[in-house]
Amino acid sequence: MEPCVIIPTFWTRRRVRGSDNGPFVYDHPTPIDIDGTLPDCLRSLEGVTGLGKVVVIVAASDPSIEHEAEDRVSGILADFPEIDSLVFGPAEMGSLHRRMEQLEFADILPGVTLGSYGAVRNVGLMIAAILGCDFVVFLDDDQIITDPRFLEIAEEGIGEKTAGGKVILAKSGYYTDEEGRYQVSSAAPWSDMFWRQDDAYNRALAAVAAPPRIRPSTLAFGGCLGIHRDMFANVSFDPWVVRGEDMDYVINARMHGGDVFLDGEWSVVHKPPALPSEARAFRQDVFRFVYEHRKLEFSKSQVDLRQVTPDSLEPYPGPFVDASIGWRARATAILRALSGKERKEYTAIARTTTGKAAAFARDNCERYFAFQRRWPLMMDRLWEDIALKPLLTGERRVDRSAITGRFPVIRQD
Predict the structure, then answer these.
(1) pLDDT, position 407
(2) Is-contact 128 26, C-beta < 8 A?
(3) What is the CA radius of gyration of the chain?
């Protein structure tokens, strides 16, 4: 297998705090006037053995800067000529949508966009199918690779059977900081007495240091995630989960009879920018976990799916996707509002966000199941598609002038 490396990168017009009400809000998009973390990520890729195609998918929080962001990313990649790269932005997205309409998949266009974490990852999987790639490795633009064997390690175990007879078709590595730590070390404040998220996360990550090396996992890391064709051509990401689409993929895989495994010897260094607002991140988590709970409940009515329960997702995210998530989110917002920082934002979350999250989950969770049922057929039709493959291999290019308004100057002598 020659892995196809896919890097989603997210851009914004300006630095923001907690003003975005969502539900689809990116954690820390790069302001358009700086290069951000992407150059360091690409630089670390240069020394990786067996590096093939690198696809960089450009998403923007503001539609008015989509083409500017694509230009910024293209300029960054121009500094790395040794990397066989492809930039996929709004122009290519238009071509993909038109082809989906031709193939009679117009009904699922809302799930194939550059507008959410899950949708962007689905676009990456579709690009891999068009290129005929059997193995995809996702990397985030704020990750640094320190091991030249990164892709070789990614492939280890893929396609093999465990002692229990399960086939490994998707596996995740894990994140460390620059000192090699992979667990959160800070103590939870009193205001989080009903929201021990870091504690549950640390218990789940204890598996990294315990045998066996590769084991079924309840969590995954989208910036260090490998998926084989037999999995990604059959199971999609959820375009309507607002955050944590990587962990949600574990649930999707389980619903369809598979598993995502955790490899204790595969990791990347994570160097994320500081979150612009802790309250905004918490609000996104409220939307995310309320949605997951509703999704698990709705799946019980689907006779063709394997049932996934909160208990089966212990130690994390199980406690955050059970029936108590609504009142615990509201109580935590109130306690955080009382404790100090971002009081106005947390008060608003306590008053309105849990209700909005419940309404969002009720209105959207079943959309994933309709989308997913069409996914395998669409991926089969797109595999090495003769109309789109030349566009992605460089044999044919999109004329962006009519889309962006950047027409070439016509000189008259």
Answers:
(1) 45
(2) no
(3) 21
Percent of the chain with pLDDT strictly greater than 70 = 94
Three-class SS state of 146: coil
Instruction: Give me the mean pLDDT over the 65-89 stretch.
Output: 95
**Contact indicator for 58, 88 with CB cutoff of 8 Å:** yes
**Which of 331, 301, 287 minimizes the C-alpha distance to 22?**
287
In the beta sheet, which residues pair with residue 228?
135
Helix and strand tally (H, E) in the chain?
A: 14, 10
How far is Cα of residue 218 from the mean position of the Cα atoms in its chain? 16
Exposure on the CB side of residue 222, measured as CA atoms within 13 A: 22
3-state DSSP assignment of residue 122 = helix
Average pLDDT, the chain: 91
For residues 357 and 291, the answer to whether their CB atoms sit within 8 Å is: yes
Cα separation, 86 vs 89, whole angstroms: 10
**Which residue segments constitute the domains of the chain, with CATH numbers given?**
4-179+195-273+373-401 (3.90.550.10)
| Closest by CA position to 238, among listed 360, 330, 143, 142 | 360
Parallel, antiparallel, or unpaired: how do β-strands 85-88 and 143-144 relate? unpaired
| Helix extents (H) in 212-244 | 229-232
Per-residue pLDDT reduced to its tens digit, 164-193? 889 999 999 999 999 888 888 778 899 999
The rounded distance, in Å, linking the Cα atoms of 238 and 108 is 12
Tokens of 227: 């998926």
* Residue whose C-alpha is closest to residue 235's, from 254, 216, 221: 254
Torsions phi, psi of 14, nearest 5? Answer: -150, 170
Q: Which residues contact 238 (CB under 8 A, 6 or more apart)?
A: 118, 245, 248, 249, 252, 295, 368
CB 236 within 8 A of CB 17: no
Crossing angle, helix 66-77 and helix 38-45, to 10 degrees? 40
